[in-house]
Design goal:
Blueprint lengths: L1 H19 L6 H4 L2 H9 L6 E4 L6 E4 L8 E8 L5 E6 L11 E5 L16 E5 L1 H4 L12 E5 L6 E5 L4 E5 L2 H4 L2
């Protein structure tokens, strides 16, 4: 009788725990469908894997200043292991292909280098705040602040022609 009772209790405990458990939602599901489609249509999955090492899983902003919301996703080169970011620019309706820019992951971005592996934080910097990064440069879109904890990091921004890196200065850290 005792063995049956123990077996009964064990089975019920396992069943209750399994019912209360919840699946962890995949960040991939939250990506806009057009971005997921373009990632595979451009065969980026052959060389890069999507990573979700930083929170949030992706950033949405007008990075190139064209008035359309772009998406930035974290990637890793499958061959080298180097980390980076891919930006999918929202396309105009009359354009067939979505413009894509890869930063890091083996492609150099000035003093930021070609590997963002050590950078464990990223945030969107709206255009109104981007102008304070470097008043001498022309900025036309939102920026990405990329940093390692307990360091200043820097900004990825569109300078009117291409993406550039600007190291964050100590006086900007207090803003």
């Amino acid at each position: 009788m005792t063995k049956k009772l123990i077996l009964f209790l064990l089975l019920n405990i396992i069943t209750v725990d399994a019912q209360e458990g919840q699946l962890i939602p995949s960040p991939l599901r939250k990506l806009p469908k057009w971005v997921r489609n373009e990632f595979f249509a451009k065969n980026l999955d052959q060389q890069y894997s999507l990573t979700f090492a930083r929170h949030p899983a992706f950033l949405k902003g007008d990075f190139n200043g064209d008035g359309r919301k772009d998406i930035a996703i974290q990637i890793q080169d499958k061959n080298t292991g180097k980390s980076g970011i891919v930006i999918f620019h929202a396309k105009k309706p009359q354009i067939i292909s979505t413009p894509v820019t890869i930063l890091g992951a083996g492609k150099s971005l000035g003093r930021a280098g070609d590997n963002f592996q050590q950078m464990d934080m990223w945030t969107l910097v709206p255009l109104r705040d981007v102008r304070t990064i470097d008043e001498t440069a022309l900025h036309s879109g939102d920026a990405i602040h990329l940093a390692k904890r307990d360091s200043l990091g820097g900004f990825i921004y569109w300078n009117g022609k291409q993406y550039a890196w600007k190291q964050k200065r100590a006086k900007e850290a207090s803003k």
